[in-house]
Amino acid sequence: MASNPGPFTQWPWEKLGNFKYVVLAPWVIYSLHGYMTKETSKQDVTNLFILPFMLTRMIHNQMWISLSRFQTSRSKHRIVDKGIEFEQVDRERNWDDQIILQSLLFYVFNAFHPGASKLPIWRTDGVIFTILLHVGAVEFLYYWLHRALHHHFLYSRYHSHHHSSIVTEPITSVIHPFAEHVMYFLLFAIPLLTMVFTGTGSLLALIGYINYIDFMNNLGHCNFELIPKRLFLIFPPLKYLMYTPSFHSLHHTQFRTNYSLFMPFYDYLYGTMDASTDKLYDKTVRGKFEKTDVIHLTHPTTLQSIYHLRLGFAYLAAGPYTSKWYLWMMWPITVATMMLTWMFGTTFTVERNSCDELKMQTWALPRFRFHYLLEWQRRGINSLIEKAILEADERGVKVVTLGLLNQDKELNENGKLYLQRHPNLKTRIVDGTSLAVAVVIHSIPKGTEQVILKGNISKMVFAISQSLCQKGIKVLISSRGDFEKLKLQLPSYLGSNLVLSSSYHHKVWLVEDGTLMDHEQRQAPKGTLFIPFSQFPIKRVRRDCIYYNTPAMVIPKSMENVHACENWLPRRVMSAWRVAGIVNAMEGWTEHECGNTVLDSEKIWHASLRHGFVPVARP
Q1: Is the per-residue pLDDT at 160 higher than 70?
Q2: Dihedral, CA of residue 167, residue 170, residue 173 and residue 174, to nearest 10
Q3: Alpha-carbon gap, residue 99 to 212, rounded angstroms
Q4: In whole angstroms, what separates CA 405 from the centre of its chain?
Q5: 327 Cβ contact list (under 8 Å, min separation 6)
Q6: 340: number of Cβ within 10 Å
Q7: Which residues fall within 8 angstroms of residue 100, CB to CB, at 6 or more apart?
Q8: Backbone φ/ψ region at 588: left (φ over 0), alpha (ψ -120 to 50), beta
Q9: How far is it, in rounded angstroms, from Cα 509 to Cα 524?
Q10: What does residue 603 show for φ and ψ, rounded to 5 degrees?
Q11: Would you tell me the crossing angle of helices 178-198 and 139-149 to the nearest 10 degrees?
Q12: CA 358, CA 561: separation in Å to the nearest integer?
């Protein structure tokens, strides 16, 4: 929202929320009905074409979003080295409003102006008109309109909304109040209307011009430099005819320079070219090496989870993962993506964060949860993880954390496999068990005397049991086999606090995903606390009980560029396994935490608090 919103700031369909596309329904039905009921000679392909063209524009924009987020998380050609936060993602969520608006106007104009219907595929004279009018009228008028929008009166009422984003993403280009978008549409319509009124219009000219505008808008706001310098060396006048991402980035950081639309010619002409434009371009083209301190290795969970990654749909990534019904309609894309990553995949960078001087990245393996359950896939997965660890070691990374199933005992013995193969690793492998245990222990209400523990025998179960028994809290195990195994591993003086019991009448349950049955949850007393200690959340059956998140902590305010949720966790909350690696690097510890090794849970807990991480509030 602008700092002092003016008239017609809000979009007419804003209150419709996600149902805003219904405003197009009457026109889509009208165009389909007309095409199917009229004779072939009277059918209007132009009108029928508007909806699919709208969809291709949305795909085009989404491709730019994904490309930009991928490059800014890993590329050395990043322009503005600052972070994006959730507030910007929320503000830019409705980037498709302008496509809806333009589609509506196309439908209306086509319905009431006969010259806009039944356009031919191609006309050379119309294309020439479009090019000349854009270079002359559109670029010139936009330059002066843009300067007017930077006058304090219009800026505070309209254009300040766009400039709220200092670090831009491709969709930042179309984030404007409604009234401002109407002005832009009238401006960009000059070549289109000229073609219609002169009878020189064609479908390809219309498609080409609008795609050109979309492409250049996205290019200018992508925040990484991708225009090679050799283009300007081969054809020097190009610097007056085409802007670069670094050119327009200066407009968002300096505000009073580089006003041009896509052609910097008018900034040169009127003396508003930023003096540092060429210097910034040269600097970003050369790039800047940035050392990474911590790498978190994760993987997608369900097939739909690819859309919830930071590289997927921005608004989905900005919220905890939940299955969406409409994503099932995209199953061909989902399956194709899965197959391609399975055949040709390697780890890819998902996210880049920083905390004070510490630099972090998240890498994802192109494997889903079900892949980890297939024995014949394990060798390939281990190969991918090993390759990522060796690459991190070569880059001088301090810590690699193994997230989700990348630390599974059956897969790699909680990461021990990689140390056995590469005993001289300088990079520390951290599975985060110690902090996950600490988070679970500190989630238990004070005064608790007994807890029910439900889960397969593992490194995590043993560490939790030992810690609880040391605190004098009795641990109730329902399986005799698990009880015997745990009792053998625990010191004899703690054995009295490990109890074999089938009782369900205690109100604190420590549970692992996949081991707690629905009927067991139903037998728990009202108000029971279900505290998961596993990487994945448990199924929620009861409404009268309290379900905790998987072990996690709220990150400090100094953590930057956090604008995507980690799987099912809330905003600005990270899993304990991931936090453990960050704290390990901050503290400069030198010991690996993998295999059967568990670091001091109380030590890492207090270190986490000291660095600004705090427990997640009770649900």
Answers
A1: yes
A2: -130
A3: 14
A4: 21
A5: 304, 307, 334
A6: 11
A7: 13, 20, 21, 23, 24, 54
A8: left
A9: 9
A10: -65, -45
A11: 160
A12: 13
Q: Name the region of 561 (left: φ>0; alpha: ψ -120 to 50; beta: rest).
A: left
Average pLDDT over residues 502-512: 92
**Structure pTM?**
0.93
**The CA-based dihedral angle spanning residues 305, 309, 314, 318, taken in that order and rounded to the nearest 10 degrees:** 90
Six-digit token pair at 102?
């333009």
Q: Is 315 exposed, middle or buried (0-12, 13-18, 19+ CB in 10 A)?
A: middle
Query: CA–CA distance from 364 to each of 163, 374, 384, 405 (Å)?
Result: 33, 19, 10, 12
The CA-to-CA distance between both ends of the chain, in Å, stands at 32
**For position 40, what pLDDT does the model report?**
76
Measure Cα distances from 156 to 5, 151, 164, 457 in Å: 7, 8, 11, 61
For 284-303, give the DSSP string: HHH-------EEEEE---SG
Express as a percent the part of the chain with pLDDT over 90. 84
Task: Quickly tell me which residue has 């300096």 as its tokens.
Answer: 254
Whether 266 and 139 have beta carbons less than 8 Å apart is answered as yes
pLDDT digits (tens, 9 = 90+) for 479-502: 999 999 999 888 888 888 999 998
Predicted local confidence at residue 338, as pLDDT: 82
Cross-sheet strand order for the sheet of 428-430 = 428-430, 399-402, 294-298, 358-364, 348-355, 559-560
Q: Comparing 163-172, 292-301, 333-342, which segment has the lowest mean pLDDT? A: 333-342
Could you read off the pLDDT of 381-402 as tens digits, one per residue?
999 999 999 999 999 999 999 9
For β-strands 348-355 and 559-560, DSSP reports them as antiparallel
Tell me how far apart the alpha carbons of residues 185 and 192 are, in angstroms, rounded to a whole number: 11
Q: Is 512 left (phi over 0), alpha (psi -120 to 50) or beta?
A: beta
For residues 449-458, average pLDDT:
93
Query: Rounded to whole angstroms, how far apart are CA atoms 47 and 486?
Result: 71
